Amino acid sequence: MTDTAPPDDIAAPDESAAPEPDTWHGVRIERDSAFSRGQLVAHPTIDQYVDFVTALRDDDGYWMCLDVIGVDYLSFAAPRGLPPGVAPERFEVVVLLMSVNDRSRVRVRLQVPAADPVVPSLFDVHPGTEAPEREVFDLFGIRFDGHPDLTRILMPEDWDGHPLRKDYGIGAIPVQFKGISNVR
Amino acid sequence: MSADLTDTAQALTSEGAQELPSRTGMGAKELLREAGAVLRMSEADTAVLVADPGEDQTMIINMGPQHPSTHGVLRLMLELDGETVLRTKPVMGYLHTGMEKTGEDLTFLQGGTNVTRMDYASPIFNELAFCMAAEQLLGITEAIPARAVWIRMLMSELNRITSHLLFLATNGMDIGAVSMMLWGWRDREQGLRILEAITGLRMNHNYIRVGGVAADLPDGWRDMTLRYLDGLPARLDEYDVLMTDQPIWRERLQGVGTITAQEAIALGATGPILRSTGVAWDLRRDEPYLAYDRLDFDVIVGSYGDCFDRYAVRLNEVRESVKLVHQIVDAMPNGDYRIQDRKVTPPPRARIDESMEALIHHFKIFTEGFKVPAGEAYAAVESPRGELGCYLVSEGGAKPWRMHIRPPSFMHLQCLPHMMRGGLLADGVAVVSSVDPIMGEVDR
Amino acid sequence: MVKLLGIDSDVGLDGADHNLLTGTLEGLVKWARQKSIFPATFGLACCAIEMMGTGGPHYDLARYGMEVFRASPRQADLMIVAGRVSQKMAPVLRQIYDQMVEPKWVISMGVCASSGGMFNNYAIVQGVDQVVPVDVYAPGCPPGPETLQHAILTLHKVIASGELTRRREDRGGGAGILIEQLDGQTAGDEPVTIHGSR
Questions:
Q1: Quick check: is A168 in a domain?
Q2: Shortest Cα distance from B93 to chain C (angstroms)?
Q3: Helical spans, DSSP H, in B94-206
Q4: Which of B406, B390, B441, B337 is nearest to B135 (CA)?
Q5: A118 and A110 in contact (C-beta within 8 Å)?
Q6: Which of A127, A139, A156 sits opposite B267 (nearest CB)?
Q7: Other CB atoms closer than 10 Å to residue C127's CB: what's the count?
Q8: Residue A29 lies in a domain
Q9: Alpha-carbon distance B282 to B278, whole Å?
Q10: pLDDT, tens digit, for every residue of C31-72?
Q11: Taking 50 as the threshold, does the pLDDT of residue A4 lie above it?
Q12: Where along chain B do its domains lie?
């Protein structure tokens, strides 16, 4: 090794070097995402999902699961706001977690493929997800493996289809407004 | 016997798949799992659940969806051993209105009219959560004028008073104090008159808009409000005499529908249910929004997590809200009642005649809607029922891509099986009433 | 017996003491029906809150003999469908209506019950008249207590005039009367100035 300038293949520490991705319990997180307006967001894979939520509950005090929300990004035209390395899928399951002691919240965004929308259930970690997971199943068709009673909760039992999907129409009937004269 | 009942119900109301499966086939592990065994039940509770009462002794009956307890269209399938409730399955969806789907079809200005009809007993909170989430997406949360913020707080606290009076009235009637129903409505009416004078409507106001509120407070609002507040403390003391100190009331509510703090947290309960168990969690104090950090109030907390504590928490929250409204009336700042950013707020009607720009803005905002940058946001407020949150995803257009309301009552219905287990059927009515669910927000 | 009533058999009823009221049987039945209607509890959504408010002390349904909301449809005459009817609730609605005993009437309270209201979508039945015959439509979102009372009084009028009974026998349909929304009549004495244009 000579004493001249450093070899070309060692990059100078400048902006082109990508920073270490932020992780927490091995899951990719974003601390100040612009898309999520500054909320701390975690992007686990389907395999990491339950273990991550369990670890947050047991180690970090995120005892409350406030909600499990489904989103269908079928024809979403804007950038999805996902960090590099997280592949966007059609469906997303968003879980809102909260720590009462620290007064802080974590949002978990899980990408769910359209071809096989099956996700492990959080029921054994947070029993309060029983009803919200049923709602996501009812309205989006995402199945939750391990849920004790995965049946429709809002629509009638024999309803066909999942209404909140983007390819399900709103079902409006055409209305013609006309004036009525014999009003008492 | 239970199979017959299920068949008849199925034939008439096509509700076949909603069943409470017979417990004779279920092993101990399955029963525990159904009851959310991760809650770590005590030995005694587990024994009650798993004990086999013998063949032909339990009956599965249906309570609702149309029943006189005025909590809307909730159906409870109860497994009874005599009068004792063993297992409960709440069946909801009878008021599903497709509001989240409708929300994707309405602009951000129209969204308030939709959301306000979810929790129809306290409509201001729905509008507030929705507008706060939309403002987070727009990035204008800090730019909302002070007067708009304080008007929002005034409306929230007035709505909290009227909603809790509704709870006291219906709770009283369900337990048997029918005069409470009349007294509660008497006081609620005066509150509704004030809301009508300010917003134009008694309910479903659509008053809180993105950027502020729809109109300024009318002349004479201070006198109107103070007159209302002056009458309330005496009335609340009357309720104390009628209910709190009364032995029958206490017998019926103390020790009934108990839930522990761990169970409440595990089930996602917030609001008066969580506070009645002793956890002092109130978003107004712990994650302050609007200007609640400038106001002085107490967070009312119970100790036993039973129906009596929930009733007492709400009664005293009315007192705290009266205190809050007094502070707001004293400190109401002058200024704009909505943000002046013309991209978001429609211009005043008079300006439309004078300025072409104003006309165009008005036209665009009311027909196409204003565009909200792409992103996702979640905003939560402390409604009379608990944490009411709005999760919005925007694509950059004028209509939300996804609009979801996190309803407190939806989560609280999950607590019903725990609270009702081991109690009598009559206590079940008291429990449902103390949870104070509003089915509009449960089913959306 | 006739002597007991004070009636002289030669003079007939004209000579009776003034402690007799006469009328037709039909009139008496219609009067009794309109003055003591028992509503069935069918509050669904926001309109139910306004319906309860109408039963409260400020607006008072008891002056019409109607404050007793019967939970059992067998004992009720009037079904006030107060609120939006979802697809899941429609069979239940029909079942409750069928269990009511004739004569029975239906008031469709609010725009959601009358036509689906602002919810023109997959989840809401677009007008409860698709499920049960409706006699009076009360518009409003929600109709205030004044409008609901106007609906009830309109119903009283048509019961008294016999319009309804005849129509029911003919085609089993409801009267289908639309009323005006009359809210804000009793809001207060002082006029209020709203500043919305600044």
A1: no
A2: 7
A3: 99-103, 111-115, 123-138, 146-175, 178-199
A4: B390
A5: no
A6: A127
A7: 19
A8: yes
A9: 12
A10: 888 888 999 878 899 999 999 999 888 888 888 888 888 888
A11: no
A12: 2-91, 99-406
Least Cα distance to A78 among B18, B274, B37, B402 occurs for B402
Give the domain range for residue A100.
Answer: 23-117
Burial class of residue B369 (count of CB atoms within 10 Å of its CB; 0-12, 13-18, 19+): middle
Give me the pLDDT at residue B102, please: 92
Flag whether A5 is in a domain.
no
**Does some domain include residue A40?**
yes
Q: Which pair of structure tokens corresponds to residue A44?
A: 């686990």
Q: Are strands B386-394 and B400-406 parallel, antiparallel or unpaired?
A: antiparallel
Q: What is the pLDDT of residues B53-106, one digit of tens each?
A: 565 678 888 887 877 765 788 888 888 888 888 888 888 899 999 999 999 999
Q: Name which of A155, A172, A182 is nearest C121 (Cβ-Cβ).
A: A172
Cβ-contact B119, B407 below 8 angstroms: yes
Choose among B291, B438, B363: nearest CA to B109: B363
Residue of higher predicted confidence among A97 and C15: A97
Which residues of chain B are modeled with pLDDT < 70? 1-56, 69-70
CB of B13 less than 8 A from some CB of C: yes
Contacts of A4 (CB under 8 A, 6+ apart): none
The length of chain C, given as a count of residues: 198
- pLDDT at B23 (0 to 100): 62
Residues of chain B with Cβ-Cβ distance to C92 below 8 Å are 13, 65-66, 94
Domain boundaries, chain C: 23-114+144-178
CATH of domain C23-114+144-178: 3.40.50.12280
**Per-residue DSSP letters for chain A?**
--SSSPPTTSPPSSTTSPPPPPEETTEEEESS-TTTTT--EEE--TTTHHHHHHHHHHHH---EEEEEEEEE-TT--S---PPTT----SEEEEEEEEETTTTEEEEEEEEE-SSS-EEE--TTT-GGGHHHHHHHHHHH--EEET-TT---SSS-TT--S-TTSTTS---PPP--------B-
More confident: B254 or C23 = B254
Mean pLDDT across chain A, nearest whole number? 85
Number of domain units in chain A: 1
Closest residue in C to B336 (Cα–Cα): C198
- State which amino acid sits at residue B364: K
User: B172 and B178 in contact (C-beta within 8 Å)?
Assistant: yes
pLDDT at B57: 74
Residue C196 has pLDDT above 50, yes or no: no
The answer, yes or no, to whether residue A56 has pLDDT greater than 60, is yes
Task: Write the residue in B100, B387, B395 that is nearest to A76 by C-beta.
Answer: B395
At C42 the pLDDT is 86
Q: What pLDDT, on the 0 to 100 scale, is given for residue C197?
A: 39
pLDDT (0 to 100) of residue B50: 60
| Assigned fold of B99-406 | Cytochrome-c3 Hydrogenase; chain B (1.10.645)
CATH number of the domain enclosing A32: 3.30.460.80
Check whether C115 has a pLDDT greater than 80: yes
Mean pLDDT of A145-153: 88
Contacts (Cβ under 8 Å, ≥6 apart) of B19: B6, B77
